[in-house]
Amino acid sequence: MDRIDAMQAFVRVVETGSFTRAADTLQTSRTRVTQLVQQLETHLRVKLLHRTTRRVSATADGAAYYERVVRLLADLDDAETSLSAASDAPRGRLRVDVPAPLASLIVVPALPAFHARYPDIQLDLGASDRKVDLIDENVDCVVRGGELTEPSLRARHVADLALGVYAAPAYLARVGTPAHPQALESDPHRIVGYRGARTGAPPAYAMQRGSEQVRVHGRHVLSVDDGNAYLAAGLAGLGVLWLPQYMARTPVACGELVPLFEDWQLAPMPLYVAFPPSRHVSRKLRVFIDWIVELLARHAPAITPPR
């Protein structure tokens, strides 16, 4: 028995609650994972897991062992990366998930520079707006906009995205330019609805001008759950958009979108990098997070939220 392999298999089973999911994330067979955990239990002479037809969970001894093994594996990773060569060149596979527009407009175009700086990091990038289960899907970190609703996650605040309201010239030519945000609550105006992963429903947008404050729900004939599709719908003239400025910059410059309500303020959208509380922040993850912060400082510089 390779004890390190067995410990890693045990940790993944505890985190995913399943031998099958643990095997998938370790890219091995369920049989292999089962054998490793059984061998570990035999070696320790302790039952580590409760097994049922629906779920696998740690016993009291298994939970205590899990906490120590997670730290041990983290120390082992630190020991390897503390060597001078590894310290200069972090290496290994890193699984991350970022919002689709952020991936296509900012992250992916900058990756040649990232890989030139860190050639030994293999980046598995998920580009989606869905809610990712970091444990079950064995994802090292996610970049997400909006306030975090999972208090169990560890997170680093990396940026505040300035927001604006926009519409396509074709839309404005068809229904006219709204003079006030509340005009979007009635005919003939429409917004493009965005269904967030947390609520499944389009949000209300808070806007402020001096002492006047409004919350705009809007009316829509289309709602989507993907940022790229949301932008495409606005460009097609299907309704008014609320966009981070990094998404609107090029369409506005090309005349494909027109800014609205420029004398109104919108609270910025916070952006976070989040990762599981039990996940060791390896050197490769630390340098990726630092790189994201550096990247966003250039493309979405910090702003002062309105009071």
Automatic annotation (TrEMBL):
Pfam families recorded: HTH_1, LysR_substrate
Keywords from UniProt, A to Z, are: DNA-binding, Transcription, Transcription regulation
UniProt cross-references to InterPro entries, sorted A to Z: LysR-type_TF_proteobact-type (IPR058163), LysR_HTH_N (IPR000847), LysR_subst-bd (IPR005119), WH-like_DNA-bd_sf (IPR036388), WH_DNA-bd_sf (IPR036390)
Q: Which residues form the HTH lysR-type domain?
A: 1-59
Respond yes or no to whether keyword Ribosomal protein is given for this record. no
Coiled-coil zones: none
Q: Which family does it belong to?
A: Belongs to the LysR transcriptional regulatory family.
- This chain belongs to the protein called LysR family transcriptional regulator
Q: Which organism is it from?
A: Pseudoxanthomonas mexicana
Instruction: Give the classification, highest ranks.
Output: Bacteria, Pseudomonadati, Pseudomonadota, Gammaproteobacteria, Lysobacterales
